Amino acid sequence: MKEEGFRFALDDFGSGFASFTYVKLFPIDFIKIEGEFIRSMIESKLDEAFVKGAVTLAKTAGIKTIAEYVEDEVIYNAVKSLSIDYAQGFYIGKPRRSCN
After folding, report:
1. CB neighbour class for 71 (10 Å; exposed up to 12, middle 13-18, buried from 19)
2. What is the pTM (predicted TM-score) of this model?
3. Which end of the chain has fewer CB atoms < 10 Å from its terminal CB, N or C?
4. For helices 45-61 and 18-25, what crossing angle results, to 10°?
5. What would the pLDDT profile of 12-55 be if each residue is shown by its tens digit?
6. What is the 3-state secondary structure (H, E, C) of 29-98?
7. What's the rounded Cα separation, in Å, for the pair 66 and 86?
């Protein structure tokens, strides 16, 4: 499928132990870092350490990162400071219907 141009994302990275195994075994293009870690990393050094580790792992493996639950400017700036590639959440934009 990759040869036909498909790209793959691993959603909710960090929500289970298998996340690291999936990165190793499958041709992942993006990891979406579990939003609970993103949301909590401002108050929790442990969650911040997890996010930093996920970013380091992804960059080492040539995988782009996506932060879930970017809901305000404080979190957005923290995500930017960690060089996370993409962000999603209410601060970026509210969900809307497709044009189709």
Report:
1. middle
2. 0.86
3. C
4. 10
5. 887 766 678 888 888 999 999 999 999 999 999 999 999 999 99
6. CEEEECHHHHHHCCCCHHHHHHHHHHHHHHHHHCCEEEECCCCCHHHHHHHHHCCCCEECCCCCCCCCCC
7. 5
CA distances from 28 to 6, 9, 72, 91 (A): 10, 6, 28, 26
CB atoms within 10 A of CB 91: 16
Q: How far is CA 49 from CA 46, 67, 90, in A?
A: 5, 14, 24
Between the alpha carbon of residue 88 and those of residues 59, 83, 92, the distances in Å are: 19, 14, 6
Close Cβ partners of 15 (under 8 Å, ≥ 6 residues apart)? 34, 36
The domain locations on the chain are 6-16+31-87
State both tokens at 88.
Answer: 């999603």
